[in-house]
Design brief:
Layout: H1 4-9, E1 15-19, H2 22-30, E2 34-38, H3 45-57, E3 64-68, H4 80-84, H5 89-102, H6 121-131, E4 136-141, H7 148-156, E5 160-165, H8 168-176, E6 181-185, E7 191-192, H9 198-209, E8 215-218, H10 224-232, E9 237-240, H11 248-253, H12 259-266, E10 272-275, E11 283-286, H13 289-294, H14 307-322, H15 345-365
Parallel strand pairs: 1-2, 1-9, 2-3, 3-4, 4-5, 5-6, 6-8, 8-9
Antiparallel strand pairs: 7-11, 10-11
Length: 367
């Protein structure tokens, strides 16, 4: 399992792992892939700086990346208090009423972990500035092409830029804007995702941007067989996010609170829903009583980014503290149906490589 992506990023296997956990990201990097740390949870640049210091010290000198959330169009911003003024009272009343009906107890909100301001363009830029002071080899943007000056800034530090695309036309635009790697993310994926399935999207993107631009397959990948399929469709590697949520390293990041993992391990591939209730943009989430409440008659329309995340941030904290797996608020892809046990990252990486080899051997025997 070796492609030109390995040469481009200095990794052993063309497996890129997006994760909000520095423990998972470091473990993937140490195992030969590229761990990519999600930065949106960092409201303060100093907290990200400290975490990347830890990454530098715990990745054995191997490359890693970061993922930012930076809209291509710079939105109107303000302080948390100023933004809060734009949230309609009826939305706040709905959230409060829903939490009561779900039996979620009240807890003291923690502004340090709310993940609210991390959705702002200005904060995302600070994430880029901090990251370029560290040993990152890739900056990925979850919302498409970053502004041209950010791409130039990364390139001046020898850092590659990746952008997610849900349509072939978006992929072409990313390349024209100077993006180095396109992540073709299919409908099955967790988090922000488009409407075209991976099997259809991936070859369309590869054909659109040409074989000179590395394309990563994302969405519905959780086995070596699926990695082999992605490469057969023209990808240079895979981008995996959901699959790492049920690792022992992620459990460590959650202070050994296993409620979320209990919910994921019990779920099937049918137990997800695509909704704007998490961030204001369409994202695939685990289907729970919390997501069901937003689909009931009379539920308000989700607000645009970043107001929706600001609205539900405290609710997400209370849900996490409730230790009730039936109300978990968590982005995850349809691959959740394969996430049936909590296992170490190294074990998952070894299995992916082994299954890939078996799949290629089977294909060779069909000649």
């Amino acid at each position: 399992m070796h492609t030109r992506l390995c040469e481009l990023l200095g990794i052993d296997y063309p497996i890129v792992a997006f994760t909000p956990s520095e423990h998972v990201a470091a473990a993937v990097t140490r195992a030969g892939g590229l761990g990519v740390l999600g930065c949106v949870r960092f409201n303060e640049a100093s907290a990200l700086d400290e975490t990347l210091d830890w990454m530098d010290a715990n990745t054995d000198g191997k490359p890693y990346g970061v993922d930012v959330v930076m809209p291509s169009k710079i939105p109107e911003e303000g302080t948390k208090g100023e933004l809060s003024n734009h949230i309609p009272p009826e939305h706040r009343e709905f959230v409060a009423r829903t939490l009561r009906e779900l039996g979620v107890p009240e807890t003291k909100a923690n502004d340090e972990t709310g993940g609210v301001l991390g959705w702002l363009h200005s904060i995302a830029r600070s994430h880029v500035d901090v990251s370029l002071k560290h040993r990152v080899s890739l900056i990925a943007n979850a919302l498409g092409s970053p502004p041209s000056d950010v791409i130039e800034q990364a390139h001046s530090h020898g850092v590659k830029v990746a952008a997610l695309a849900g349509k072939a036309v978006h992929a072409r635009s990313h390349v024209d804007n100077g993006v180095d790697i396109v992540v073709a993310q299919g409908y099955e994926a967790g988090g922000h995702t488009g409407e075209i399935a991976s099997m259809v999207l991936l070859p369309e993107v590869v054909d659109q941007v040409g074989h000179d631009v590395p394309v990563l397959a994302a969405g519905g990948i959780g086995s070596g067989r699926q990695v082999a399929a992605a490469l057969a469709l023209g990808a240079c590697g895979v981008w995996m996010g959901s699959y790492w949520l049920t690792t022992t390293e992620y459990l460590e990041s959650m202070n050994n609170s296993s409620t979320m993992q209990e919910a994921l391990v019990a779920a099937t591939s049918s137990d997800t829903v695509r909704s704007r209730i998490y961030s204001g943009k369409p994202a695939r989430l685990l289907k729970t009583r919390w997501t069901d409440a937003w689909q009931q008659p009379g539920a308000p329309t989700p607000l645009p980014m970043p107001l929706q995340n600001l609205l539900v941030s405290e609710a997400h904290q209370r849900i996490a503290a409730s230790h009730d797996p039936t109300v978990v608020a968590m982005p995850v892809g349809q691959i959740v149906g394969r996430m049936n046990a909590v296992r170490p990252v190294a074990e998952l990486m070894s299995e992916l490589v082994s299954e890939y080899g078996d799949a290629v051997d089977r294909l060779q025997k069909t000649r």
